[in-house]
Amino acid sequence: MFGKRIKRRVPEINATSTADMAFMLLVFFLLATSMGVKKSIRRELPPSTDSVRVEPLRVKERDLLVFRLDGEGRLFAGSEEIPLTDVKERVKHFIANPDNEESLPEKHSREVPLLGTVEVTDTHVIALRYDPHTDYRTYFEVQNLLLEAYCELRDAEAEKRFHCTFDRASSEQQEAIRACYPQRISETMTAEEKGGRD
Questions:
Q1: Separation of alpha carbons 66 and 105, rounded Å
Q2: What domain range includes position 108?
Q3: Theoretical Cys-Cys bridge with 168: which of 3, 103, 164, 182, CB 3.0 to 4.6 Å?
């Protein structure tokens, strides 16, 4: 009456190419996506002193722009509290001294290769004084704003003189622009102890 039950075999799935497809997808996503690299600002470090005693730099009051960060992250230009958004414009105006104001750095005539005789404020100093309890984020924001101010001044000069950005200029052209706007930043911690806050 009842016949034998026939056992049916479940067909096997051929998974040979699955590993190949997974590898190809991985390679595709690695090549197709960008790795969120943050842009950085180049920083010119002071030359090594090689244990040679360096005489302290004497700076005229008109050549010095002082920014001070306190422990609460407030920023002061002299005795006036200012927002971070004002830093770049203040620095650019101070360094360029477009109207040759007596309260801003003195302009000197310099012979610059490729540019000839140029009026520059090459004795200026931007001083950043910070409290050891200043949080790192604010400290680096101010540092970056100072560097961006130099970059913008150099870019504008490169556009005016060579019709290109500073980064696209030749090494000789970059040297000439640096001579017009030398980077002169001094950083000092206001207390003996070292450290900071996240």
A1: 13
A2: 61-112+120-151+184-189
A3: 164
